[in-house]
Amino acid sequence: MKINDVILRTVVKGVIFIILTLGVYLFFSGHNAPGGGFIGGLVLGSGLVLLYITYDLETVHKKMPFDFKKVAGLGVLLATGSAIGSIFFDAPFLSQTDTYFTFPILGEKHLTTVTVFEAGVALTVIGTLVTIILSISEDE
Amino acid sequence: MESLMMILIGILVAVATYLVLSRNMIRIILGTALLSHAVHLLILTVGGLKKGDVPLLSQSEGPFTDALPQALILTAIVISFATTAFLLVLAYRTYKTNGSDDLQELRGMPDE
Amino acid sequence: MNNLLVLPLIIPIITAVVLVFLKDHIVLQRIISFITMLFVTVLSFILLNIVQTEGILRLDFSGWLPPFGILFVADSFAMILVLTASVVTTICLLYAFSTIGNRHEKMFFYPFVLFLIAGVNGSFLTGDIFNLFVCFEVMLLASYVLIALGGEKRQLRESLKYVLINVVASWMFLVALAFLYGTVKTLNMAHIAVRVAEAGQDPLLTTVSILFLIVFSLKAGLLLFFWLPGSYSVPPTVVQALFAALLTKVGIYALIRTFTLMFPLQQDVTHTIIGIMAGVTIIAGCMGALSGRDIYTIATYNVIIGVGFILIGLAVGTETAMTGAIYYLIHDMLAKALLFLLVGMMFYITGESVVKKMSGLIKNYPIFGWIFFIVMLALAGIPPLSGFVGKVLIGQGAIEAGSYILLALGFASSIIVLYSLLRIFLASFFGETTISLEDSKPIPKGAYWSFILFTISIVFVGMGAESLAVYVKDAAETLMNPSIYIDAILKG
């Protein structure tokens, strides 16, 4: 079934970028301020769900041919991977590290392995959120 | 403030109990969601409401507020998010296959 | 610091996720999951031996020293249970390969079994009570999925109730945690023990401990087992066996930990309540087992009797009784898993679950029949099988402490267990065969192997009790003297 809702479609075309940008912003700001992987992932995930609601499943699937169960799996792998990586450096499990790097154009930046962990969390949240919504809506 | 919070928690638990004891599946799930909200507030209140500064050593001399309850609540929120989501999908499936969302009708026969 | 400690939790999780990507490669999924469980088993055996030589091990996550950070603690008790759980899961996987069916395997059956074992191992190993909650939830979420997997009418209906009850139980866990944190301001189990001892376990703390008792009783099926018979009879056989072997045992582990380490001071209140609950559980379980007409009901009520019997050991609380409880815990995990596999196989062969409608199975399946006979004897506690040592030691402890009622109840329950299983054995295995030799379905090879391996381990736990004694004695000693545990964590 195709819904032909002009207002929703027009609004979503503009709003979706704001939502996704906000999601990414929340994800990165999580390091020193409120935000982080879980909240960023939730916002990104709800943006995707909005896309699924506005356009139908097939259209979105054509442009984004991901299996969201696997996205969640990838997230868990990233998170556990960053946690278990410390074992190989003889540091306690879950240890994280950070350094300051100087990049050619960007200047000095603060890089941490926590970001990898948080990326895993975000992907897991996106994956589960979309999977849950899809598993309810798919069987019509 | 603490007593006000406790009253609020009490009301939430009372409402949630009422919802959980009803026969409709969606009401029960809403009830469990409310229950988890109530317990999150309880952890926050019992752990001590904000008394001092943000617990960052470089920024103030103290006394600091205990940050642990918030970490606990965040974890509990994530878990209750997962459980509630699963419960919703399960309830939907059960409704589809069993054709009823009334728990009285979902009792099942002992001899089937 | 010993990073090996986290592997029984993290390896199953990582493999489970890898298996998600291998959705369509069933053979590969089987091989990987089996190798993983084998590896975890070997690893936990090595860890158990390290604990013997080096004492209690601990791993502070990301280097936060206790009592501030989350930590994993391995003492003999935890490691024995991790080892037994891993052995049970490995053997159950063998059974699953030949019986679970393609549909389940494609629906992420193996990943969820691995998630379940990760949660179980995490619950045994953690030294932080909030982390215990989290591991419980990992285990429970996996169990929700496993119980509903397949999506039949009955399964969905029962799983909905199972999930709801566990959600409410988890809520009560959080309430208890909130009040505990409010009173003692710490979540590290060893640190809680110190703070409780300093405060002298006043009535408020005792109330909190009773809240924990209710929560863990719901999970363990101690008195609050009303949810258990319904939900344990709907999933596929392997899942039933895993649940019967692992889920209630995690609740029992939590009860033993809570009341030997954290709240051991008001024994005349808490342990009396546990004793009464254990007694009533045994009586109710016996009634259920006697009145049950189908094999599933009888088997599930046997689980409940087992729970009551182990907790007699905790209620009595002497070192002998505790040693017996640990022995019995090992035995119960192995024997209950085997019992459920056998019962499931009976249903698979005959398509019937009512005892009276089956007959003469032993003619067609002699080995199968005699294995059932052995597990029956083991559950009744007949030497030299695994149940005997535990029963004797718990009985000895009960005599030392003078709790004769519990003693009588415990040993009367053995007779009931024997009777209820003997009824299945006489009615279903002996007598005229209803199926002719040509018509009889063959039992899959993998299933036979799992039966045989379980039987070997049951006989080993019984005959080789002496060789296990080193570990079990050490575990009981740590449980009886919480200061060993506390010193290992807070000093050093």
Automatic annotation (TrEMBL), chain A:
A Pfam family assignment: MnhB
Presence of keyword Disulfide bond: no
Membrane disposition: Multi-pass membrane protein
UniProt keyword list: Cell membrane, Membrane, Transmembrane, Transmembrane helix
Keyword Cell membrane: yes
Compartments it resides in: Cell membrane
Domain Na+/H+ antiporter MnhB subunit-related protein, residue spans: 7-131
TM regions (residue ranges): 7-28, 34-53, 74-94, 114-136
Family listed: Belongs to the CPA3 antiporters (TC 2.A.63) subunit B family.
The protein, known as: Na(+)/H(+) antiporter subunit B
UniProtKB/TrEMBL annotation, chain B:
Nucleotide-binding keyword on record: no
Pfam families linked: Oxidored_q2
Membrane-related topology note: Multi-pass membrane protein
Gene3D superfamilies listed in its UniProt record: 1.10.287.3510
Keyword Transferase attributed: no
GO cellular component, as recorded: plasma membrane
Matching InterPro entries: CPA3_antiporter_subunitC, NUOK/Mnh_C1-like
Locations listed in the record: Cell membrane
Keywords assigned: Cell membrane, Membrane, Transmembrane, Transmembrane helix
Annotated transmembrane regions: 6-21, 28-47, 67-92
NCBIfam families: PRK08600.1, PRK12660.1
Entry protein name: Na(+)/H(+) antiporter subunit C
Species whose genome carries this gene: Lysinibacillus halotolerans
From TrEMBL, chain C:
Annotated family: Belongs to the CPA3 antiporters (TC 2.A.63) subunit D family.
Keyword Nucleotide-binding on entry: no
Organism: Ureibacillus galli
Cell compartment(s), UniProt: Cell membrane; Membrane
Transmembrane segments: 6-22, 31-50, 70-95, 107-124, 130-150, 162-184, 204-229, 241-263, 269-291, 303-330, 336-355, 367-389, 401-426, 447-472
InterPro entries named in the record: CPA3_Na-H_Antiporter_D, NADH_UbQ_OxRdtase, ND/Mrp_TM
Name of the protein: Na+/H+ antiporter subunit D
Membrane topology: Multi-pass membrane protein
Lineage top rank: taxon: Bacteria
